[in-house]
Write a structure and sequence with these properties.
Elements lengths: L3 H15 L2 E4 L2 E4 H13 L8 H10 L4 H14 L6 H10 L2 H7 L14 H20 L4 H9 L20 H9 L10 H9 L10 H7 L4 H15 L9
Antiparallel strand pairs: 1-2
Helix pairs in contact: 2-12, 3-4, 3-7, 3-9, 5-7, 7-8, 10-12
């Protein structure tokens, strides 16, 4: 994938990223320290039985800042504790008009004339329906088992033939975000991550090879994803081809 000489160059540049100082919760910290904590927290997700979180958090984060997603997600959990499964969420979505759902449950002021086309609403519905159908199709005992079963088998380079990947709005970034929220050791092909990979590390490889690249250079994929994302955000660096 890369030569030994290139690997040393990449590791030196990653060291620069790790030592770069950013502000977090009102305090200055290095990106390496910040992402070390985030990676440790992420590893706990691998034992979680929460089927709603990876789907809801993924739907809320598209085209949005991570901080905005977190505040909306935390609000949802606090205000609607009875909606803790995809089955319960589907029941509410099926009986609530899109505009009211967006405002009441997601705290999003959607366009009244096109609320049913709101990207977050549409993705949330596609994923919720999709995983419930997937669970039934494979005869799996729980929603989280269905999501993990899918996550272990999905192929980023063949999403058009994937049960979930073929649905509208589901691309590589969505897939990897779900997997990150499951605690999987993967990298999300976010536009900032791609931007840093190509413009700072000077590495151009297919996005479905990013996790393999992380293993090659000896970095936890979740950790590498985090430091590249935080550096890209701090430097306002994005993929030249635009948002994925």
């Amino acid at each position: 994938m890369i030569s030994s000489e290139k690997k040393l160059e990449v590791l030196a540049r990653i060291n620069e990223i790790e030592n770069f100082i950013v502000s977090s919760n009102g305090r200055d910290t290095s990106i390496g320290a910040l992402c070390g904590v985030i990676t440790a927290e992420s590893s706990e997700l691998s034992n979680s039985s929460d089927s709603l979180a990876p789907v809801l958090r993924t739907a809320l984060v598209i085209n949005f800042r991570e901080s905005a997603m977190k505040s909306r997600y935390q609000r949802f959990v606090a205000m609607f504790p009875e909606i803790s499964t995809l089955f319960a969420l589907k029941r509410v979505m099926d009986t609530t008009v899109p505009l009211a759902f967006c405002k009441t449950y997601l705290n999003i002021n959607a366009n009244s004339a096109a609320a049913d086309k709101n990207p977050k609403y549409c993705l949330l519905k596609a994923l919720t329906d999709g995983f419930l159908e997937y669970q039934k199709l494979h005869g799996l005992s729980s929603e989280i088992e269905a999501i993990r079963h899918w996550s272990a088998r999905v192929k980023l380079d063949d999403l058009k033939n994937d049960f979930i990947g073929k649905r509208h709005g589901v691309g590589p970034a969505v897939v990897q975000n779900i997997r990150l929220n499951l605690g999987d050791r993967v990298m999300k092909p976010d536009r900032r991550v791609i931007g840093v990979m190509e413009q700072f590390l000077h590495v151009k490889i297919p996005v479905d090879k990013y996790s393999e690249f992380a293993d090659l250079i000896g970095k936890n994929p979740r950790y590498l994803d985090c430091i590249l994302f935080e550096y890209g955000k701090a430097k306002k660096m994005s993929a030249k081809s635009g948002q994925l």
